[in-house]
Design goal:
Oligomer: single chain
Order of helices and strands: HHHHHHHHH
Radius of gyration: 21 Å
Shape: elongated
Largest sheet: none
CATH superfamily: MetI-like
Number of helices: 9
CATH architecture: Orthogonal Bundle
Structural class: mainly alpha
């Protein structure tokens, strides 16, 4: 019986590759979006503007303090009641952007705040504007602190793409559940799902470890 299930799994393996492609697409777009939004929010979070810092703080607290699946349900089921109707794929990307950018924001803000105040003062004494100080002096130094945990966060974001299956996005986890209906050998099916997730996460894990060693030197 196990041999029969395995042969069936081999037959429908292209279906898993389709799910892997969808997972990769969601992850890639989300990583870019989260990084861009997170860096902007992180710079605001590390600024001296009290009002904006508090607003970003509320956003970060909500995104980090509520389950990701709840955020997806809000985007997919509640937003349409407010006039924003989204299909499953863009809803998944928006939910990933909300959640991921909050974590990236905290990483960036922590990196910027780790730079001694003297660096800001030195940059200011050189006649640089606030934005030039941040872009030319502070951010290049803070990247040593930001990059390793940022890559680690990317790995977590890739794994979080599995949650978007709850709204019907046909990514790897959804493919696994659909396959279990046809091949009632859950361990075999989800072992394959786990291996495929590992195949796209492990290179980032290696990169994170390398960057930690490199930045330490």
């Amino acid at each position: 019986m196990m041999a029969f299930y395995f042969s069936r799994l081999v037959e429908i393996f292209p279906f898993f590759l389709t799910g892997l492609w969808m997972t990769t697409k969601v992850a890639f777009i989300s990583l870019i979006t989260c990084t861009l939004i997170g860096f902007i929010l992180g710079m605001i979070r590390a600024s001296n503007n009290v009002l904006l810092k508090r607003l970003v703080g509320i956003y970060v607290a909500f995104a980090r303090g509520t389950p990701f699946v709840v955020q997806i349900f809000i985007v997919f089921f509640i937003f349409p009641e407010w006039g924003l109707q989204l299909e499953a794929f863009p809803a998944a990307l928006l939910a990933m952007a909300i959640m991921g950018s909050a974590f990236v924001c905290e990483i960036v803000a922590s990196g910027i705040n780790s730079i001694p105040k003297g660096q800001w003062e030195s940059a200011a004494s050189s006649g640089l504007s606030k934005m030039q100080q941040l872009r030319l002096v502070i951010l290049p130094q803070s990247m040593k602190v930001i990059v390793p945990p940022l890559v680690g966060q990317y790995v977590l974001l890739i794994k979080d793409t599995s949650v978007v299956s709850v709204i019907g996005v046909m990514e790897l986890t959804r493919v696994g559940w659909v396959t279990v209906v046809r091949i009632p050998e859950g361990l075999m099916v989800f072992a394959l799902v786990g291996v495929l997730y590992f195949s796209i996460s492990y290179p980032l894990i290696l990169l994170s470890n390398y960057l930690e060693r490199r930045m330490a030197i």
